[in-house]
Amino acid sequence: MSALLPGATLGVLGGGQLGRMFVHAAQRMGYFTAVLDPDPDSPAGRVSHHHIPTDYTDVDGLARLAGLADAITTEFENVPAPALVHLSVARPVSPAAEAVAIAQDRIREKAHFVGCGVACAPHAVIETADQLAAVSGDLLPGILKTARLGYDGKGQQRVGTRAELAAAWEATGDVPCVLEKLLPLDFECSVIIARGGDGQIVHYPPQRNLHRDGVLAVTEVHAHSMPEAIARQAVAATQSIAQGLDYVGVLCVEFFVLADGELVVNEMAPRPHNSGHWTMDACDMSQFEQQVRTLAGLPLNMPRQHSPAIMLNLLGDLWFLDDGTEQAPRWADVLALPGIHLHLYGKAEARRGRKMGHLTITGADIGEVRSTADFAAALLGLPIPLSE
Ligand code: ATP
Ligand code: MG
Predict the structure, then answer these.
(1) Which residues sit with Cβ closer than 5 angstroms to ligand 2, an ion?
(2) Does the pLDDT of residue 144 top 80, yes or no?
(3) Given this model, what pLDDT does residue 361 score?
(4) Separation of 143 CA from ligand 2 center, angstroms?
(5) Spatial separation of the C-alpha atoms in residues 149 and 77, rounded to whole Å
(6) Where does residue 337 rank: exposed (0-12), middle (13-18), buried (19+ CB within 10 A)?
(7) 159 lines ligand 1 (CB under 6 A)
(8) Average pLDDT over every residue of 91-117
(9) 311 lines ligand 1 (CB under 6 A)
């Protein structure tokens, strides 16, 4: 395929915040955009040139998207893979339906990691009562994860005993699951790469992530956010995972670093990722511009981080006082701090646990960034210190 130059129309399945930031990046470069999302008021739909408010499986909606867009990508991995297959008959689609289908299914995803020689947590597949009965006691205590449709810690249950495991599996409705051994984590990190149709790969420096209640809370990226050997190993593992899929697009791979220093892969997302939002403000090219470039078949450039960064996720909880009354966070005070970059996703309603936006803090050195981040966290009512 020859490159799609500015002036062409780029399409995206899904209208959430990731789609919105993709649309912003594409429009900045002179592309037109088309979003398909059933929500008439979706964050990306509201800022796109075209918005098709149909279901992902609606063939008329998909035909309209293919009619408008010269190439199509996705912004969330739970988009039905058949929709991507359907679109790919008419238009270039990246990432490919097969890569998305693997990322959608923890069982296939783990098999892919193992096939690429990347270590993952000891685990067992539970699809039948016999497999449940055969689970090795070594995997307990563990975390039972549904094979499909989990995100932000949803679809996960911690289990300590066989009885708890059996009850937890029953609570899922006996759907296919993976039981993972609960590992002693030192910290978590992730790597974002972009891979072009010609196989060229560029990557960002690995970021260190802190989760609260199964949801990403803080991302930090600076010269000392993790040992260099771990960072190198994580980048190499992510590259093999992408190559093994013949992947085209932006890919994020999440890792655990264990107490003994071992690196273990957790999961992948076939799209830009929440842990990569800092790239918009602290790098010369964001993960969303990489997504535009891979989709349009443009050359990729190795991104350069020009500032240390801390990213704070802004969940809907920040909009509620202790007594439950709703009140906008203290934006004016937060924005008075130096090196603050506020991103809000244009969601009409704040709900507890809902991702409403994020804040990236940049500065001359990590000490300065950390102290500004602590001030911002205090103003917003987030826990301090930000990391353990
Ligand atoms: P998301 O898609 O939002 O990243 P998810 O719902 O797919 O989340 P995971 O990434 O599998 O869930 O797990 C969420 C968090 O739970 C992890 O980031 C980690 O903090 C913790 N966790 C998951 N698996 C394990 C494990 N085997 N041992 C220890 N902690 C774990
Ligand atoms: Mg995760």
Answers:
(1) 254
(2) yes
(3) 98
(4) 13
(5) 9
(6) middle
(7) no
(8) 96
(9) no
